[in-house]
Amino acid sequence: MPENNKEKDLAMYIPYGFSAVACLTKGRAGLLTALAGTVFALPAHAAPEAADIVATHVQLAQATAGGAKAPSTTASGTATTAGASPTLIVTGRDAPWHSPPQQLPPLTSRPELYGQPQSLMLHPLTPIQLHQGPWGVFNANTGAASGFGTVGYYAVARWAEDWSSLRDKRNRHDFLDPLKFIALNDSGSIYLTLSGNFRHHGFWEQHPALGAVDKSHVYLSNLRTNLGADLHLGEHVRFYGELMSGQATGGNKFGYNARWRNRVDAQQAFVEVRGHMLGATMGAMIGRMSFLDVPPNVSAGSVYPSIPYSWNGLRGYSVWRRFRVDLFDLSLTNFEYRAFHDQVGWRTRLFGAYTSYAVPEFQTFGKKSQIFVDTYYLGYLLASSPITATKGVIAGSTHRDTPGVRVWGNAGPIEFTANGMWQGGTFQEAKSGPSRPVSAYSFNASVAWRFAKWWGHPSIGIQADDISGGDTRKSATRSWGTFLSPFVPSAYYLDLAQNFNLQNVIDVGPLVTLAPTINTSLLLRVPVLWRNSVHDTIYFPGGVNYAYRPTGGYTGVLPQGSFTWRATRHVTFSIDGQYTALSRGLRNAGAQPGAYFQTNLELTF
């Protein structure tokens, strides 16, 4: 909640959450110290568009050099040597801050890779590089298909990592591995995994929120620290808890709320029961948890600003060989600045079901192909969700029903995603005002060709979205057509500066990803934006209405770039930049164009 009345006036223009970016940097202590001293004076995000090609057969050949047999792939997608158990024993001689290239986690394992295009990992990786659960084909694309967010060396949700291979001490190859598997009984069936993360996220922006906050040349410095403990009581029961704290300061700053500055609280705390039934791995989770089993253009966990979204409730899942289903009923956590005062926010609910079918693998242009067909229903209940009026907004609450279908994956070198959603429900005007039906839609697609034999293994493609808007000229009882996107998609889906939400927008533009080296990646994108309906406004992330009432359909263009350097398992650094060029109609309405620059430094174990 805003901390003073002035901030309250500005709160509608401040992101209730951006989505995110992680970070880490290269490895000698002196270099790290010098770099950290520089970075903490800069800005931050992270690049989700990483190349799948960092985990190629070349790396596998290096990893098995010295006469070892080349790995094959188990049913769960884990690499194993012929005739051996699925655990690859590594006795390596790694220095703590210097990882040989074959043992660097692939860039696709970065947690912030919950965006598009979601390139599949077309080659098996060694257990050195992956810590995924028993999800078989759904571990494709660094686990993005599993429903638990990306899971590589580290994960978006740290509880989704599986470190049980460290039960055999010969598999320990990193100086922090003793913290990842702490046996609490002789057999190791009861064990504790500790995790942690420190992130500095700073950014400079010329005109935040397109000038709506009446601030310019703003610099914000954002720190986040979290510590997690994952207690496994045998095969079927585990408890997970995570503490998180966020701090923020800066120059010419504005409007910090409790998701920017939060002393310390339980970000997650749940119990999970898992077993095998009807040929599936089934589980139930109850408590406070992160939730990512939605398309990345719906939500990416909103790890920006300091504190990501946290949900309270019940989740149940079943995973068969080629089909999985997830059922959930969750309430959003309300964050408070005071320590251990976060509350269950019963006034904001997310509920529904998500299913995914893995089409049997096939060959396209002589390359492995894997496609997923997802169907889902997402229900929203929002006690406060105003809609746009000709001037200002109409206060009220809303219930939204959002069924959808998503087809995504790769056909050989072609990487693609196509997602369609229809949204129904009702909007109830405040103070016993009239109720009106909702009818809205969202179509999202991207397609790219991966040139795996070219330098940098570039992926070159195009992204397009068509998301409906409303008509403020309609009467108070006519249907409302603005698609509601309240939970903030990945910043790397459309707008790095997070000035535009996926509501009332049409966009199209080229998209290029490149991996110049084994541990660096580059994203380039130039989306061009229009309003879907010229009788509706533009929207800030989180479903917030701008006060601007521009003329014309054309909105602007957002040339942007993002560079990420993954130096070691524990350190990553990234730089993002964007210029927001606006249409004359939007500038005449009061909006201001401007530059955005950001850096991230992240330390993770």
From TrEMBL:
Q: Would I find Signal among this entry's keywords?
A: yes
InterPro entries reported for this sequence: Alginate_export_dom (IPR025388)
**Protein transport: present as a keyword of the record?**
no
Q: What residue range is the signal peptide?
A: 1-46
**Which superkingdom?**
Bacteria
Q: Which UniProt keywords apply?
A: Signal
- Where do the Alginate export domain residues begin and end? 191-575
Pfam families per UniProt? Alginate_exp (PF13372)
Q: Which PROSITE patterns does this chain map to?
A: PROKAR_LIPOPROTEIN (PS51257)
In Swiss-Prot or TrEMBL terms, this protein is called Alginate export family protein
